[in-house]
Amino acid sequence: MSLKTPRRVLLGRALLAGGAGVLAAPRIGGAQPAYRPEYKLSVVGNRPIPFAEGAFQWAELVTQRSNGRINVRVYPGSQLVGGDQTRELLAMRQGIIDFAVFSTINIAPQVREAGIFQLPFLMPDHRAFDALINGEVGRDLVGIMDRRDVTAVAFGENGFREISNSRRAISAPADLRGLKIRFAAGAIFNDIYNGLGANPLQMSFADLQPALSTGAVDGQENPVNLFLAFRMDTLAQRHMTIWNYVNDALIFGLSKSVMASFTPADQELVRECAREAARNNIALARRGLGIPGTDDSALVELRNRNVEVTTLTPAQKQAFATALRPVYERWSGTIGNELVRKAEAAIRAAS
Question: Are 128 and 119 in contact (CB under 8 A)?
C-alpha cells in the first residue's frame, strides 16, 4: 500500500489553506468594517433655522472628515416619519432612521425625564440652561437615552420659546384667556395653557402655518429665530411676548447599534463632529436676542416687521410662574423629583 498522498488532495489542501488565509486577511490589523452606503439623519424643519442647521452641519462634518466612509444624508421636515416629529425616537429604535437631532419636547412623551426642559419657568436664562446640559442633569439624560437604545453624543439648543398671537399683547396670565394656542407635543403644554385659561391645540409643525393663515389657531410658541425664518408675521402674528417660559434642548443622537458598528476611531469622529455642530447650533440659536455676547438684531427685525414686542419684567414672569406652580409641582413627579431637584440645585449654583 502506498503512503504517498495523492497530488489532487495536496492541491485541495493548499487551496483550502490559501482560502482560509484570504478569508482571515480582513481581520488582520483591524481592517475597516463594511459600512452602509448611506446613513439617514432625521430633523424637524429645514435650513436656515438653527435647529436644522445643526443637523446639516453634523452630517456634513461626519461625511467630509470620514472621507465619505460614513455617508450621512439629512432628511429634513421629519419626512421619514410622515412629518410627525413625535415618532422619530420610535423610528430610530425600529431602524428606520440612523441619526437624529431630537427636540426634547418631541421625545418627552416617550422619555419622561426629557420633560425637565418643559417645566414652566424652571430656567430663568441661558446660564441656567447651560448648567443643565453641561452638568449632572445632562449626564443623567445621556444614560437614560442609552437605555432607550440611543447614543446621545451632544446637546444643542432650539431656544427659549416665546409666544405670539394675532389678537392682543400678552403681559399677564389673564391675557391668554380664550386664545387658541398651538403646541407641538406633550401633555404638559396642554396643562400649561389650560392653567392660563387658553385653549391649547396640538399639531405638527407642518400643519401650523396653514392653521395660522386660516385663523384655526390664534397663536403659537416657538423661538424667535424660527418665527423670523418662517415669516410668521405674514400669518397674522402681530404680537410677540418674550417670556422665556421653557427652553427646548436638542439631543444629537444616533442608534446605539449603528454607533457600535463603527470603529472606535470613527465613533470618536462622530462624537467630535456632533460637539462642533452643537456649539455652532447654540451660537446661532442665541444670535440677535440681546443676551450677553450678542446684539438685539432679531428683536429689532421683529419690530421692523411691525410685530409688537412685549418683553416681560421679572415681576411679570413671576406672575405667570405663580399661576403655573400647580402644573410645575404635578409634572415634577412625572419627570422625576430627584432629577428636578438636581436641576434646581444646578440653576441656583449658576445664578
Answer: no
In degrees rounded to 5, what are phi and psi of residue 305?
Answer: -90, 15
Q: What is the DSSP string of 50-119?
A: HHHHHHHHHHHHHHHHTTTSS-EEEE-TTGGGTT-GGGHHHHHHTTS-SEEEEEHHHHTTTSGGGGGGGS
Where does 155-307 have alpha helices with state H? Answer: 187-195, 205-214, 224-229, 256-261, 264-286, 297-304
- 47: closest CA among 7, 6, 76? 76
Grid cell for residue 119? 417645566
Distance CA 198, CA 177 (A): 5
Please write the tens of the pLDDT for every residue from 197-218.
999 999 988 899 899 999 999 9
pTM exceeds 0.90 for this model = no
Please write the tens of the pLDDT for every residue from 12-49. 433 333 333 333 333 334 456 789 999 999 999 899 89
Q: Which amino acid is at 88?
A: E
